[in-house]
Write the structure tokens for this entry.
Amino acid sequence: MKRALVAIGGIIMFMMSIESAQAAPLVLRFAGQSAVEQGPTITMKKIASEVANKTNGRVQMKVYPASQLGDYTLVYEELTRGTIDMAMISQPSQFDPRMGLYYINYFVKGYEDLKKVFAPDKWLFKKMEDLNGKLGVQLLGFYIEGMIGIGSIKPVKDVLNPKVDKGILLRVSSITSVVEGARAMGYRTVTIPYSDVYQSLQTGICDGVDGFPVPAAYSILGDALKYWYNINFSPECLSVLMSKKTMAKISPADQKIIRDICVKYTNISISGAKAEDEKYLKLMEKKGIKVYRYTEKDVLPLAKACYNSWDKLSTEMTPQLISEFKKEMAPK
């Protein structure tokens, strides 16, 4: 009798341990590059909270902002390996040069164009989803942080005329589409890492910067900048990504919940981009930075010069991709 009771007790304990294991939540490491107080990090926390709520705690996310798990290139590499689960980061081009696609200047015409261009059923999303997928990473959505202009410590010459040398040395990233876009607009360029930009402005290594949306330019470079030219040549777009190795651990129903939430916050970021930029433009002015605002019509000469430079990207991004890009994104 005792043996039977012991056996029954053992079975009960075994079944309870199985139920406990099944009930344990899947906790994902969610990496970001933005400061704690900035919009992307706030949105990451909202995504994490909503996912936990709508999956009844089955999927939870621990947010690591401000590059705590490494810069965006390292985080992306970890996503491909499955050692980081999820991220909201800039899209690196080191692993595939074609990833620089959405850094091409003036493929977005303005704020009203953002929702159409970045929608999940449109060409750009599908193409970036395919390119990421081949590296073992799933694209879930985007975060539009704002539009990018030119910040400088001295005046830029004839900013709207692409044929005129601008009289400054402009910091750019190493991404070819960024470099070619800046040169098409009339700038001499120097490649400087993102983390070194503030010091480079202070020490005169460069006179101006591109690659910073309005909120980040104010928050990170506000004490160094003297001028801001709001020519809106590119959106600052962060990708919301998940390792496919992590995705395989999540049920199809919970995958859909996560996708839907990420698309929701993509649209929220797009809807709020113009107001967010204007908020920080006013803060720039209050700080003493001279802000120049331009209409879409004003910047048309710059946009046309950039369109004419797109073919220079064919060698790195392949002629087929640039041909597709021009067909889908060039002005009709």
Remarks:
- The chain has one domain: 2-329.
